[in-house]
Amino acid sequence: MNFNEPFVITISREVGSGGHTVGSILSQKLNVPYCDKLLLESLQKQFNLTAGGIEKLKGQKKNWLTDFFDKITPMPPAQALGLNPKYVKEFRADITTDDVFEAEVKILNGFADLGSCVIAGRSGFFVFKNHPYTLNVFLTASKDYRVNRIMAKQGLSEQDALKVIESIDKARENYIQRYAGVSRYDARNYDIVLKADGHTEEQLAGLILSYIG
């Protein structure tokens, strides 16, 4: 990857693998913005965004995503990554799953237009397949590792943690297959696949940085 050019690192992960934290660590070490699910949902809810609404805003303002951040918080995008719940409103009832996906794609591309960034999930490997400087990462882990991690983080029983894993795994696979037309478990989608077992999030982030180097 050429660090002299704007780059995108996408982090796809199994729930309970620690991928969200790994992405956050990478963004901090590389000093680039981190775009995760919370940020996307906050933008969509705050501005009632549909794909058409984004296109209208893009026509009015060259730096349309920067304007979003100016309205949400006085901090610059690189720091506006943990949005306060007070900024979140409910989705409009007429927004469909397709509307949300199209809006997410446009927001993600808006992030990339602003410069280098780390993207968590959201079909990033597919959205940025034609970006010239992209690294696609997939983080996996054993079922036991994932169950134990979710039990500890969410205070769930083993049975409930398993239900969370099964539900999210199914939802994410359906989402990827619907919009990307491939399985999220196909290693050919990624440049590097890492198994989280036996590693801390810091170590996993270090492995990715070493791979880049």
Describe the model:
The protein has 213 residues and is α/β, with parallel strands linked by helices. It folds into two domains: 1-32 and 118-213, Rossmann fold, CATH 3.40.50; 36-114, no CATH class. The protein is 52% helix and 11% strand. It contains nine helices and five strands; from the N terminus they run βαβααααβαβααβα. The protein has helices at residues 19-30, 37-47, 51-60, 64-72, 97-114, 124-127, 143-154, 158-180, 201-212, and strands at residues 8-13, 34-35, 117-120, 134-140, 192-195. The protein has a five-stranded parallel sheet, with helices on both faces. Helix 7 packs across helix 8. The longest helix has 23 residues, at 158-180. It is globular. The protein starts with 7 loop residues before the first strand and ends with a helix.
Mean of residue pLDDT?
A: 79
Q: For the CA atoms, what is the radius of gyration?
A: 17 Å
> How much strand content do the residues show?
5-15%
Order of helices and strands: EHEHHHHEHEHHEH
